[in-house]
Amino acid sequence: MPEEKKRRNTFLQGFSKLLIGICGIGALLSAFLCALCPFVNPATFVWTAFFGLGFWIIFFANIIILIVLISLKSRRTLLIPILAILVSIPGFIKSYSFGENKHCEAQIKVMTYNVGVFRDYKNHSRSVVDVKKSLVKFIKEHNPDVICLQESGKWPRNTAYEFSKMIGYKYFTYNVKNGNSYFSKYKIENVDAFKDDDIRRFADIKRIKISKDKNFYLVNCHFNSFGISKEEIEYINDTKNIVKDSEVYGKSVISKLKRGFERRTKSTNLLLKNLPDNMQPMVICGDFNDTPLSYTYNQMLNSGLQDAFITNSRGIGKTYCGALPLLRIDYFWYNEYIEVIDYKRIKETTSDHYPLIMTFNIKDRIEEEQE
Questions:
Q1: What gap in Å lies between CA 200 and CA 150, rounded to an integer?
Q2: Percent of the chain with pLDDT over 90
Q3: What is the C-alpha to C-alpha distance for residues 60 and 302, in angstroms, rounded to an integer?
Q4: Which residues pair with 338 in a beta bridge?
Q5: Which of 218, 220, 239, 225 is nearest to 281 (CA)?
Q6: Which phi and psi (to 5°) does residue 128 adopt?
Q7: CA-based nearest residue to 309, from 339, 343, 338, 281
């Protein structure tokens, strides 16, 4: 009996090692595809882009596989998750921040927030009026100098004016085509910088006049979302639906994801080509609907812009608080003439996005040239 039990245990252990090893190979391949995401244009080959959405799931899966293999004393297959984790390091650096806020005074505070057309995504019984009232209270509490809203709706001028009065901001402007709005304590100047009208579907650019000799460009963006419905998100999150109703939702989800990746790649190219003089202070913010493991993010990074979350925050910093997990898709980008002092994500969950607040100084050009 003891020998039979020993053989059974040996068989089970061997089978477990084999099973975990197979899972490890799958997780390793996924990690490789994640690592390729930033460098593969979705317009050329879209399928790698899908893996960027699941970076953290793949990363944690490889850690769990490593721990299990260590507990099973499987030395031969340990290399698989170790290699996967090593391959994931560049993605980890882009997705997890070790930055710090600076302990000094800042001149300017800007907030970006996708307000989801003023609907409470958790409590659908709340009216638009109630949501706006809570937003007014939130704005007064944090008191930003300039506010960039996305999905603020195609409100008439008098409605925007009333909202501006409620929050106590003198200047405001909005784009009825894309739902982007600005509210500011400082003067907002129009900038005729975009040479291509297509860009106005997702981005706006203004010059914020701080004083006679201090101003900065502020670009407010809302890139195409995936357009996935609530029912389709429930389908993704429910493993029972992997087979059931796949014809109804499965193909629809994949086609929407594919179309979203391709559109955002075109939008990023268009934005970077149409930006104004890069020798001036510039902040680009908004809902980019793409993660740090995306071709979009890599394009922004390669243009010389910096991600304020990476330079001035800590942790994973997810900005999407909807059903899909650990997605950081809202950003503050800035150029070399901006000194970021503080970056905060506020856990306000009325919308399915968290608001972000960045405080910063505009660098003195004379000091910059001396450096």
A1: 13
A2: 53
A3: 28
A4: 362
A5: 218
A6: -60, -40
A7: 343
Q: What angle do CA 324, 302, 326 make, to 5 degrees?
A: 15
Residue pair 52/88 in contact (Cβ under 8 Å)? The answer is no
Residue in this structure with the two tokens 């040239």, named with its chain if needed: 369
CA pair distance 104, 327, nearest whole angstrom = 30
Residue-wise DSSP of 143-171: --SEEEEES-----HHHHHHHHHHHT-SE
Q: Cα–Cα distance between 163 and 128 in angstroms, integer? A: 12
Going 147 to 152 to 156 to 159, the CA torsion angle's sign is negative
Helix (H) or strand (E) holding 290: none
Half-sphere exposure for 32 (CA within 13 Å, toward CB): 9
Q: Which one, of 225, 255, 260, 262, lies nearest residue 45 by Cα?
A: 262
How far, in Å, CA of 365 to CA of 353, rounded?
35
pTM: 0.88
**pLDDT tens-place string over residues 8-59:** 556 566 677 778 888 989 999 999 999 999 999 998 888 888 899 899 999 9
Question: What is the CA 75 to chain-centroid distance, rounded?
Answer: 38
Q: What is the pLDDT of residues 61-96, one digit of tens each?
A: 999 999 998 988 888 788 999 999 999 999 999 999
Q: Is the dihedral of CA 263, 318, 292, 51 positive or negative?
A: negative
5: which residues sit within 8 A by CB, 6+ positions away?
A: none
Q: Are 99 and 311 in contact (CB under 8 A)?
A: yes
Whether the CB-CB separation of 297 and 38 falls below 8 Å is answered with: yes
- Residue 296 · residue 223 · CB < 8 Å: yes
Cα dist from 85 to 19, 28, 59, whole Å:
19, 8, 7
Mean pLDDT score of the chain:
85
Number of neighbouring beta carbons within 10 Å of residue 242: 11
Token pair recorded at residue 25 = 């190979």
